[in-house]
Design goal:
The protein is globular, with a radius of gyration of 20 Å. It starts with 5 loop residues before the first helix and ends with a helix. The protein is 80% helix and 0% strand. It has one domain. The protein is an all-alpha fold.
Length: 215
């Protein structure tokens, strides 16, 4: 492993990006975990109580396992493919001799973002907001509110930086192209999150409706 730079500490070392992209088990498990994160934390209509009825338990488990895989795959492809194409488009416009972005590497980096940032943050945040003291601290303590804002900012910036690094590993692009790509990644992740949350909520409501009618 080469000498570590600041960007390697913030946005993961280049060698780690490349090694993970070659690990098919990491990619497959990652698809499931990304989907699980989207379903469990992305929908206000997901109700854990639907697993309580034994007569429908098998059907419910099979449905949500398949749903996790499908929505996880959609999420990963919807992020990695358009961003890779956008990066390659900029490359052709500015510095055409550079190698194109590695789409599989971008996929693995997006999964890595979920492993180390999105899933731990969502678990911690959802636990935190259920604590009685959370609201009073957020309203009455400006330092605590500032800390929460800083954490939310990190959760926006760090994943964007990690994906930008994976897009430009084989490209020594101009700083203006990197800034533009950074902004596009930031906005695209928000758009994909909104779109997937809508899909997950619609499917959850439909399944709960059918579950109540049939069950």
């Amino acid at each position: 492993m080469k000498k570590m730079k600041l960007s390697d500490y913030l946005f993961i070392h280049t060698d780690i990006h490349r090694k993970l992209s070659k690990n098919k088990y990491f990619l497959f498990i990652g698809i499931f975990l990304v989907g699980l994160n989207d379903i469990f934390f992305g929908s206000h209509y997901f109700n854990i109580n639907i697993f309580n009825k034994n007569q429908q338990l098998t059907h419910t488990l099979v449905f949500y396992l398949l749903f996790c895989l499908i929505i996880g795959l959609i999420d990963i492809l919807a992020v990695a493919l358009p961003l890779s194409d956008f990066s390659n488009y900029l490359r052709k416009k500015t510095e055409s001799k550079l190698a194109p972005a590695n789409k599989r590497l971008v996929m693995s980096s997006y999964i890595l973002v979920h492993y180390i940032l999105f899933i731990p943050f969502n678990i911690l945040f959802f636990w935190l907001i259920k604590q009685p003291v959370f609201e009073s601290l957020l309203v009455g303590n400006s330092s605590f509110g500032g800390f929460i804002f800083f954490v939310f900012l990190l959760i926006k910036v760090l994943p964007t930086g990690i994906l930008l690094k994976s897009l430009t590993l084989s490209q020594k692009t101009h700083i203006s192209s990197n800034i533009l790509t950074f902004i596009v990644i930031l906005l695209w992740l928000d758009l994909i999150t909104l779109a997937l949350n809508g899909i997950v909520e619609w499917v959850d409501k439909l399944y709960v409706f059918l579950y109540n009618v049939i069950g």
